[in-house]
Amino acid sequence: MIGFLVWAINNLISLYILLIVIWCLLSWFPGASQSALGDFLNRLVYPYLSVFERIIPPLGGVSFSPVVAVFVLWLVQRGVQMLGTIL
Known about the structure:
Layout: H1 2-26, H2 36-55, H3 65-86
Helix pairs in contact: 1-2, 1-3, 2-3
């Protein structure tokens, strides 16, 4: 049971990281963030990223908050994996 929970949480975090990457890539194309996919991703990803945008200001017009957000998710993912090996 614990193994399944660790597997499920690990895959959900990986999926969310992928959604953040796609959200970032959509920002490179004009009008893509206003599409149905862009709106859907914005509703899923932006609430989490906004926490980091308040802490990390953009440098030269480039926001590094998605990088930090993905790194934090990666750390959580590793913590869940370590906890799964202990339990």
